Amino acid sequence: MAKKAKSRTIAVRLVSMALTGYYKTLIRPRTHRPLSMLKYDPVVRKKVLFLEQKRGGRG
Amino acid sequence: MANLHSNPKKLVSLAHTLHPRLLRFFARYPPAAIVPTLTEPAPALPNPFKCQKHLVTGRRHDPVFSLRRQAEIVKLARKQGVEELLPHTVKGTEERMKRRAENGLRVKGTGVGQKVKGKESERTLKGRLEKRRQAMLDMPQMIQTWKERGHGRGWKKWPK
Questions:
Q1: What SUPFAM superfamilies does its record include (chain A) (predicted)?
Q2: B5: CB partners within 8 A, 6+ apart
Q3: Which partner for A18 in A30, A48, B31, B48 could form a disulfide, CB atoms 3.0-4.6 Å apart?
Q4: Residue B107: HSE in the Cβ half-sphere, 13 Å Cα cutoff
Q5: Complex-level ipTM beyond the 0.85 threshold
């Protein structure tokens, strides 16, 4: 049987670089470069850098 | 309390201030500390706060005062400052302090020289906060680097 086609977009997790454990989930095209942005972290109550978490692990 | 031996007048005035329940107790079981001031030496009575072994049968007889009543008498005596006149009891302040030091608050680890284990989150809290603090100190530099590297285009170290 033919394999199911991969979706064009993926959900990724952007973790706060303040090491608070806070993260945001965003959707980006599979072929796009990893996301990174400045966003508000409510734990430290500041705008901090969020970087996309490396995917994989279980797979 | 040390001058009690020498001053019977003080003893009498003290007796007037005591709670009737304490007074009855001391009348029945005169404390060894003030017995010498009496005219005739009374025979030593067994500690009414302890169980007694029957001399013939060897069976143990319950204390005259239950633990509850012992505690009540100790509480009254402590309030009036005459606790040291009472016979030895497990409800006494000294014994209680000893037990407190040994067992703490009955919660494992609160005694002297013991440590509360706590949840893992509690044990690691300090370290995590320190890590976070350090990360926040490095944040402006990190953001600067991130901006210089094309807002993530040249970023190599992605978090796991």
A1: Zn-binding ribosomal proteins
A2: B33, B34, B36, B37
A3: A48
A4: 6
A5: no
Q: DSSP character for B31? A: -
Question: What does the pLDDT average to over B37-50?
Answer: 73
* B151 contacts in chain A (CB < 8 Å): 36-37
Alpha helices in chain B (DSSP H): 8-17, 20-28, 67-80, 93-103, 120-148
Question: Given CB atoms, is B99 within the 8 Å cutoff of chain A?
Answer: no
Give the model confidence (pLDDT) of B84-94 as tens digits: 889 999 999 99
How far is residue B86's CA from residue B14's CA, in Å, rounded to a whole number? 15
Please list, in sequence order, all residues whose beta carbon lies within 8 angstroms of the beta carbon of residue B32, skipping any fewer than 6 positions away: B44
Quick check: helix, strand or coil at residue B85? helix
